[in-house]
Specification:
With 531 residues, the protein is mostly helical. It is built from 15 helices and eight strands. It has a two-stranded antiparallel ribbon. Strand 3 and strand 4 form a beta hairpin. Helix 1 (3-42) runs parallel beside helix 14 (462-493) and helix 11 (366-393) runs antiparallel to helix 13.
Amino acid sequence: MDALEIARWQFGITTVYHFMMVPLTIGLGLVVAVIQTLWYRTGKPEYLRMTKFWGKLFLINFIMGVATGIVQEFQFGMAWSEYSRFVGDVFGAPLALEALLAFFVESTFLGLWIFGWKQLKPAVHLACLWVAVIGSVFSAYFIIVANSWMQHPVGVEMVNGRPVMTDAWAVFTNNTALVAVPHTLFGALAVAGGFLLGIAWYHLWRRRHDGIDTVGADGKVIPGEAAGILGRDRSDHTVWIRSLRIGAVVAMISFAGTAFTGDLQGKLMFEQQPMKMAAAEAACHDGTGFSVLSVGNLGAKNCDDIVAVIEVPGILSFLAKGDFTTEVKGVNSLLGEYQAKYGTTLPDNPIYGDRAGQQIQYVPVMEVTYWGFRMMIGFGGVAALAALLALWVTRKGTVPASRGLMRLAVFGILAPFGANAAGWIFTEMGRQPFVVAPNPDPSGIDQVFMFTAAAVSPGVSAGEILTSLVVLTSIYAVLLVVEVKLLVKYIRGGVASAMPELAHAPVDENEDGTPRGGPGKPDDDVLAFAY
């Protein structure tokens, strides 16, 4: 295999894996902050229990996200040094702000939140969480600013063959970023909503399965208590039913938000990267119709044999232009324009190595863009519909006794994750063959672009990159097992896993065997919550 292909696989695997942590961290952090605010304002114990339980899962995911995210920075210098040289003058500012400002604030105040339950005043403690969560949002913003510049370069001029930032305001207010940020945040909230819904459903089902909750003649739940286990009392039922409803509402609102911002994002893509959107529709010819389902060889270089089996007239024009009549250029029309602007073969330049002179494939892999686009929308729609049905099914205070429905609800947690992953894969793969896509601006800024073939490190062999790919994938597989085991352990443990005092199960002892905090006193070791 070519070093370029291996490097792309490596970055794709590690980035998609890391991004599975990111939306849950951002979305769940926002939800936990709101729940703790409700506890601070009302003093209701169920909100404290919800804060501790969901907060513990949030921390596990946050730690794993940090561990897996560090690798991304090393890859820039290891496998993508030419890319780093090209974008360095632009990326320096947003990435420095992300690391030195946003992540520093996020991690510092999160530490204060973890260890400040009894040491800080409630208002100050709550403020620490909000600052940490806002820090994570800004962290996402700075990363998206950098990514959006790759999608739509602005605010620079070319100096000695490299873009140099001349307008920081243009870079940080790139219209691509301003639309991508809320779209990403709504996607993160959708993940958090599905997470709450699925886990809360499981615990409500378990309470019915264990005979703690029963259903009256009118179908309404009768919450009970498990004798001798404070963690599974009537308040425990309130924790899960409120968590489920909060999750369902968040999931539905988030889907509406992602649909609205996604429409704005799609219209920008039709202007900035028309080939990506044409490939996403398998639209070989100019037209107005949106293909719901197409058949043919989506992987062929010539897409003339692709036929739309189900097509909705006018919808493609609406997605692109906001009307139902304007024709949208197809792959065949765009291909000639791209070749005229950027050439038909890779330049005869040492930076391309053996790839110099190869034909440039301007049409991205349509299996990825076509199905990725539909998976993104499909998984998001399924998650929103499931949330609506969950609200209806649980209107009487509990979930059905069906084990099959419980398993479906738990596996449904993966749907918004799938939507997020599919969306990012579509966004990044659809940009090929560019790692920095040209800006189709008549002012001449379209000279700022970089082919992916020029971005890979010239001094790194295919064998070296393959070795790092195998090593990193193996490490990530181990981390995946660790995270899943930790999450499953504490999810099954319920609220008592984050508040051991509820189950009278101190997690630490003094040297004489007595519970820390003294005989008969609840364990007050803050690490019982944190770890």
